[in-house]
Design goal:
heterodimer, A: mainly alpha, 4-stranded parallel sheet, 12 helices, about 50% helix, about 5% strand, globular, B: alpha/beta, 6-stranded mixed sheet, 9 helices
Amino acid sequence: MTLPIFESRELRPEPPALDPAITTQWLVAFLRDELVGRRGISRAVIGLSGGVDSAVTAFLCARALGAENVHAIRMPYKTSQASSLSDAQLVVDALNLPCRTIDISAAVDGYLQWEPEADARRRGNVMARTRMVVLFDQSAKLDALPIGTGNKTERLLGYFTWHADDTPPVNPIGDLFKSQVWELARYLGVPQRLIDKAPTADLQADQTDEADLGITYARADAILAQLLLGYSDAQLVERGFSHDEVTLVRRRVDATHWKRHLPTTAMLTSTAINEFYLRPVDY
Amino acid sequence: MSEVPAHLRVALLQTKPAKGQYQRNLAAAGEAFAQLAGDAPDLVVLPEAALTGYFLEGAVYDLALCASSFASDLARMWRQACGQRVDLVAGFFENDGGTYYNSAIYVQIEPDNERIVHLHRKLFLPTYGVFDEERFLSRGHQLGVFETRFGAMALLICEDACHSIAGTIAAVKGARVLVIPSASPGRGVEGDGELESVAQWRARLRLTALEHGVYVIYAGLTGFEGGKGMTGSSCVVDPRGRILVQAPPTQACIVRADLDLRDIDLARASLPLLGDLETVLPDLLLDDDLPLPGRRYDAADL
């Protein structure tokens, strides 16, 4: 008699999985604790870009705080795609959020008129930082907390403007890979168009994240998930990734550790802040 | 020893402390005690770092107390809320004359005095990943089993209970109830309807109870601390490994259970693994290959 054979599941290079119900429950509790419980703030302000990250963040905040307490700010620049505005509007309409549109073109150009040679990267950074100026001022006006919308993939790849996108004091999705954000978006009921569209920083015409990065989010997430567990490049190649894509991801991560930290401060005493004098952020 | 009662009625107070605000959290515990006053339990259990929060870094030195002060504070709050006698377990950061520990006390509170029955200092201080305990704290050196009016018990704090040998040694030394104050930051959202770390804890506690025929009482801290969410999930496991009650992960609450202490003997009769272990344990521990002190450097090695 031939015996049946049971083989272990083949290791396939897949993005990490997510249980969206548990994740939502946990993140809603996190937002309530951080805003209402710890800070006594019941309102949030979110820069709504028309992308899936800020949409998911808005949906989570609406569950945690009530939609009427989630203030969406659309901040187009004159070269932003018109679809970014209309896609953001889909989120506003779906949740019935209070929303304001503040065009940042005059503020950005007010500075850049003195720097006409600034390349696209510099111009993009100015736009990103200007948006944070607006977001924090609106938060002061509205007695609301700015909420971060950066995901784990872009944080690990350094695909963000330092002291801009990463600035808000609370971020519910920063430990979720982009693939997991999409999964969460489907569960939360984010408008399908935002889930299907190509992610873009929308700082330049026809820009897409995946073209900028040189790899798809699905592949990058699958590599990152295993890289963070300590697998070597050789082991990642054994698991079905190409040498080139592993190298690309590894280099981006290694080159951007500084972007995930506070500024480097020279230590001169045995009471140096965050070196010897150690207090948690919520103390 | 006087006869042990058949029942132990426990209340777990799943605290959600405001970070570092000891007096405010003590007052909140007093309010919870008042909730219990109408039907006072025999034993109240609070989590690890119950009234300060867990991730304190250097602020642990601001907030650590000597054991007698902590016991006195708890006793005062209990008496204000409820005059009845009670036993109480709670985790706190201990200052023992300038040496700091992650500790838990078992206090017997009477209407006019209190007595520390046992003080346990955490043995296994997690210092990896998100944890940094040994940077700030010293570790305990003894796993004590102590007598209470409800029989022999042992205290284990959080990671202590992650090492199956700790529960094993406590049971072999006679503990019939393991009380575990804990603070576990949740992680793992891949699937199966709950956080992976919550599922792992439950599996661990059930296995400990089942293997040794002991009651396991687990009190978990809850609330977010700088983005790290403590998973609560306080629970009671019977000596057959069954969950009698389990709290939700993210909510301050009270968990109550009535433990029939006679079930310990019945469970051990039907699954006598502890008795078997006591027979075989000398052979296991006298194994010359075990890396135990005094055996590492025998004549052949020198």
